[in-house]
Amino acid sequence: MAGKENVVRACLIVDDVPVNAIYMSRAQHAAFGYEPSELPYVFGWRELERNPRFLPDELARFAGIAERFGVRGKFTYLPFPAGWGRVDERVRGYSDEELTRMNAIVRDRLDGRFDITPEVMTHTMAILPEHGALLPHAETHWISHLCRERRMDELAEYIRAAYQILHNIGIRPHGLTLGGMPDPSGIACGEPFTKGHHRDVLGEVLLAVEREFDSATGDSFVYTGAPPVADRSIRLRVPEAVYGTSGGGSESGRVFEIHSIDDPVWFLAHGRGSEALVVDRLITHDLGAGSFVEDAEHGRPLVFTVHGQTLNCLNTGLGFKVLEEILRRLDQRFGDRLQWHTARELVAAVGFDGRDAAG
Predict the structure, then answer these.
(1) Tens digit of pLDDT for each residue in 32-88?
(2) Torsion angle, CA of 69/72/73/77, rounded to 10 degrees?
(3) Are 263 and 12 a contacting pair, CB within 8 Å?
(4) Helix (H) and strand (E) counts for the chain?
């Protein structure tokens, strides 16, 4: 039997489901009169209008892949995708039957295998939770602003609305994802979560809101994409505590930041490029090299992210093929040594660097 030191920990992060946030966030920026970002990583975003949403068949395909390979991790399901409507009511672009099917797949096949998180409500522009009107601010940066100004009640209302919608369809959310996006209005004043700011405030409110829905909640996590700052997290890609209270009792608890490599399929999002090259960079066809093999040899967990739109890859399914081949090679290379974890399980399995939080 392999020793504990030989175990290879893994966690798959899936973001943005069910909208193509690359396209929709920039389309909404333009609708509000902003100049949409044309940074290289989103170059040609207008072409993605042909793939604005993730379909039920694609969600079922992903669930099948996860089940076949025993994958666990963190999965985003947006409560109010792109401001199109609530997933517990109606969402523009989906029939009632399609939405019911998608909700059922997430609830019955993914919840439990993955920690399901909101990201936060829309993953495009921020929204007024009480009546669904879009605000002229990118959502992540609006939430960063609320944290910066310590507007705790408004922040709690926003997160609580996201949690309530998912609870209404039988999903038990845990944790919170904040999507990367430009800040066209400048509302975050250069201090977004994605650069590591204000995560302690976010963690404090998140933990309080989670406990409203489940009083037994001890710790939680966020995934903001911010780079690690603690030494052990930099070296080993382990989670790091960004908020914590000490003293024991029901009020104590921590919130961790989960760290991941960038989406390896991102630059295939337009359905063009070499899937073999993407996979070989992570684990070569002979299973002997690649960044995942190197990470495993150095004791780093294999935490990587994909997005709904990069699985679809402009209606080609190229990202699904890449993911399946990555998982097939990992399974062949590591066998029983490979152990998949949800985000919460990952913290328990590999520990954390806690120097940035109290407790």
Answers:
(1) 999 998 776 677 888 888 888 999 999 999 999 999 999 999 999 999 999 999 999
(2) 90
(3) no
(4) 12, 11
- Are residues 151 and 141 in contact, defined by beta-carbon separation less than 8 angstroms? no
Q: Which residue has the tokens 């797949």?
A: 105
What is the tens place of the pLDDT at every residue in 143-194? Answer: 999 999 999 999 999 999 999 999 999 999 999 999 889 999 999 999 999 9
CB atoms within 10 A of CB 198: 22
| H helix runs in the chain, sequence order | 21-31, 56-69, 96-105, 139-148, 152-168, 199-213, 231-236, 275-282, 291-297, 308-312, 318-334, 343-350
- Residue 92: name the closest of 67, 122, 117 by CA: 122
Class of domain 4-273+299-350: alpha beta
Residue 201 buriedness (CB in 10 A; 0-12 / 13-18 / 19+): buried
- Cα–Cα distance measured from residue 43 to residue 165, given in angstroms and rounded to the nearest whole number: 33
Could you tell me which residues are beta bridge partners of residue 296?
Answer: none
**Sequence spans of domains, the chain:** 4-273+299-350
Q: At 253, give phi and psi (nearest 5°).
A: 165, 165
Tell me if the bond preceding 118 is cis, omega within 30° of 0.
no
The distance of Cα 21 from the centroid of its chain, to the nearest Å, equals 12
CA-based nearest residue to 73, from 344, 348, 265: 344
For residue 53, the cross-strand partners are 19
Find the radius of gyration of the CA atoms of the chain. Answer: 19
pTM over 0.70: yes
- With beta carbons less than 8 A apart as the criterion, state whether 12 and 340 touch: yes
What one-character-per-residue DSSP string does 74-138 give? EEE--SSGGGS--TTS--TTS-HHHHHHHHHHIIIIIBTTEEEE--SS-SSEEE-TTT-PEEEEE
Residue 256, C-beta contacts closer than 8 angstroms, at least 6 positions apart: 219, 220, 221, 222, 239, 240, 241, 242, 347, 352
Q: Token pair of 197, please?
A: 């700011």
